[in-house]
């Protein structure tokens, strides 16, 4: 019996994650290949995979960027193409949007297990392993779209930075930026860590920081430049789309406009969201440097949280960007739990508002979205305060060895 209990304790997070992935598949897949009666909103089963199958040429085998438009960065576009190819190969002529959705869920489940494996390999506690394995955002977003790819790169970059492998961490963060932009927020922290590294000469610090710039440009360029050179218009669509889109229902900018507090056009939102983020980011780094200056990568979590709060776009799945970082570096359970509550509430409030627009029920209003967004915003601010003020979690407290002190 003791052996069974010990084995269950060892494999428990894997079993828990398998159950979570099964629930995530069921949450999205129960609607099938077609949606009727606004069920994609009333039940929450909406997935980008369904419209993408037909609207991005995936059903016809078209290659993103080269033969079809794609509003995602290159590595995510590549993942989408691989999953569409898998759907067509496994199902043949019977492949449809539901088949593609299954392929998307499978791909994201593999990434979720990769993150769990990295978490376990880094020596995180069972509590943190279960915080990932049983994460509600995985149920909501495992079949939603493809943002988990960039989150996987971000986790890998953070763990490489923890071992003081700056070059590897920089390359991983830059590649994450080629999947979705948010991992690039780690790059300035890695550069600052090299520039102010203790026990090194000024020349070594400058050379180390400059080498990271070269690595970041090379890693990002290696996957982007070939596509940009051959299909520039479709390659740049992600960047153009990001600049031109007005916002989403749960962002503070859209909520302020809906309630008449501050009505802004797109250029104004672009400007002020940047200024607010830049000012807040500088404050977070300055306030957190005294405690985390030798491990500045720990400040990636509060920087990302602040970015989400100030950005003009807060799509529901963006919460999946932050949760693995909280699993790694979070120090207080209460704001983490409050964040999860706000995440679930905002998800259904937003989709039920869309349902109400189509005359379906249950429905919600902007007031409901505001209430959920406020819960999430309070959690975000609480988490930022904790990340700046609290000591690093025990697993992240690292003493350099001769082997691991390599750049």
Descriptive overview:
The chain is mainly α and 407 residues long. Helices cover 69% and strands 0% of the residues. It has 19 helices and no strands. The chain has helices at 2-29, 39-42, 49-55, 74-91, 97-121, 126-133, 136-141, 148-162, 166-177, 186-195, 202-230, 232-235, 237-244, 252-258, 266-292, 300-310, 319-329, 333-357, 366-389. The longest helix is centred in the middle third of the chain and has 29 residues, at 202-230.
C-alpha end-to-end distance: 47 Å
Shape: globular
Number of helical stretches of at least 4 residues? 19
Write down how many β-strands occur, each being a DSSP E stretch of 2 or more residues. 0
**Portion in helices:** 55-70%
Beta content: under 5%
Instruction: Specify Rg, calculated over alpha carbons.
Output: 21 Å
> Unreliable segments (pLDDT under 50, ≥5 consecutive)?
399-407
Query: Secondary-structure element order, as H and E?
Result: HHHHHHHHHHHHHHHHHHH
Summarize the biggest pleated sheet. none
The overall pLDDT, averaged over residues, is 93
User: In terms of structural class, how would the helical and strand content be classed?
Assistant: mainly alpha
